[in-house]
Amino acid sequence: MAHILVIDDEESIRFSFHRFLVKEKHSVVTAGGYLVALAKMNAEHFDLIVADINLGDGYGTDILQEVLVRKLKTRVIIITAYPSSKTIEMSFRGNANDYLVKPIRQQDLVRSVNKSLR
User: Fold this and answer.
1) Which of 42, 48, 60, 108 gets the highest tally of CB atoms within 10 A of its CB?
2) What share of the chain is helix, strand, coil (3-state, %, to 5)?
3) Which pLDDT tens digit goes with each residue over 2-29?
4) What is the number of other CB atoms lying within 10 angstroms of the CB of residue 95?
5) This prediction's pTM
6) pLDDT of 31-84, one tens digit each?
7) Domain that holds residue 101
8) Do 20 and 73 contact (CB within 8 A), yes or no?
9) CATH number, residue 28
10) CA-based diameter of the chain, in Å?
11) Which run of H or E residues covers position 4?
């Protein structure tokens, strides 16, 4: 069981991912934006973060930088509906564990989470 933070500005994504991951016996916390996610990262340790690239008030790649600056052992999966070679490069340069393109099927999310937590 892992403690996971899901960050997405779309409530339906947060709800679905929460449901999928709790079903896999993970503890899941959600955040609707960058600033809320930072506050949750200040209050709790997460084994894994699943972050959308576009968060309204920040970017998932900024979350990657926070993990690096804070020297956390937290793994990060970046998700996006608008993939580009630039965001793929930025994500993996920032040590993202995976990069998933929306829409994301439950089995693909679970597979990526399990792989990232190994």
Assistant:
1) 60
2) 45, 25, 30
3) 999 999 999 999 999 999 999 999 999 9
4) 12
5) 0.97
6) 999 999 999 999 999 999 999 999 999 999 999 999 999 999 999 999 999 999
7) 3-117
8) no
9) 3.40.50.2300
10) 34
11) strand 3-7
